[in-house]
Design brief:
Number of strands: 4
Order of helices and strands: EHEHEEH
Structural class: alpha+beta
Number of helices: 3
Helix content: 40-55%
CATH class: Alpha Beta
Strand order of the largest sheet: 2-1-3-4
Protein name: Glutaredoxin family protein
Pfam family, one: Glrx-like
CATH superfamily: Glutaredoxin
CATH topology: Glutaredoxin
Radius of gyration: 12 Å
Strand content: 25-35%
Distance between the termini: 12 Å
Length: 82
């Protein structure tokens, strides 16, 4: 099953917007999604901390800073085979 993760941090306006976009799009396509706080893990903070929000699809980086809706939808359709 395809899993989307939004790597974000507390108090990040761009992260909040990305989470809303991901929630809406994943909801429409029936794809599971979750958030992860980059500041909760030193490795995540080092990897993603200066680019949040970062969108992962099945653990692979898809994009960062914002959700590019058409590109994101296409990637999810490809990943889910729908």
């Amino acid at each position: 099953m395809t899993q989307v993760t939004v790597m974000s941090r507390q108090g990040c306006h761009a992260c909040e917007q990305a989470e809303r976009d991901v929630e809406r799009i994943c909801g429409e396509l029936g794809v599971e999604w979750a958030t992860a706080d980059v500041d909760s893990d030193p490795e995540w903070r080092a990897e993603y901390g200066d680019r949040v929000p970062v969108i992962l699809i099945d653990g692979a980086e898809h994009g960062y800073w914002k959700v590019e809706e058409d590109r994101f939808r296409k990637a999810l359709v490809t990943a889910t085979g729908r």
